[in-house]
Amino acid sequence: MQLTATKAVITGGASGLGEATARHFRSLGAQVTLLDRDATRGKAVAEEIGAYFAETDVTDEASTAAAIDTAVAAMGGLSAAINCAGIAPPAKTLGRDGPHPLALYQSVIDINLVGSFNVARLAAAAMAKGAPDAGGERGVIINTASIAGFEGQKGQVAYASSKGGILGMVLPMARDLARDNIRVMAIA
Description:
Layout: E1 7-11, H1 16-27, E2 31-36, H2 39-49, E3 52-55, H3 61-75, E4 80-83, E5 94-95, E6 98-99, H4 102-128, E7 139-144, H5 148-151, H6 157-177, E8 182-187
Parallel strand pairs: 1-2, 1-4, 2-3, 4-7, 7-8
Antiparallel strand pairs: 5-6
């Protein structure tokens, strides 16, 4: 897969790792669609780097499906999905103010893990419809894990759980999508 021929969606593309990835991909000639909840910043970054933007809540099926459809229409297909959207609010299992708030834990899991799965599954469906490249590949899904998925620190129970889930998701997803010539990986 050559970046000059890549058509990528990048979640969390309005800031942080997602923005840096989008800037790098664009600098090497890839077409990019930023997916982010922050419409103001997302549109500004997209305009600055010559990318597309789709306001997206990765935890919402309809929002994500619409964003993938927008990206496919704008770029003429999809060959890469990079999941960078994520949050990492610190909270101990039992802190000074009591037990870890369940809603906070669920929010981290929903954005970091469920959101990554949601984007991956919908991106895979779009990639599977595309023609393979010269090497027979239809696409790649890159998920963002973390060393915390292996060895979380104090105050990282939610974040470490979400990243451990990403690590557990990658191999079976890669096996599922191998028949469609879609690679799946995670960075830590």
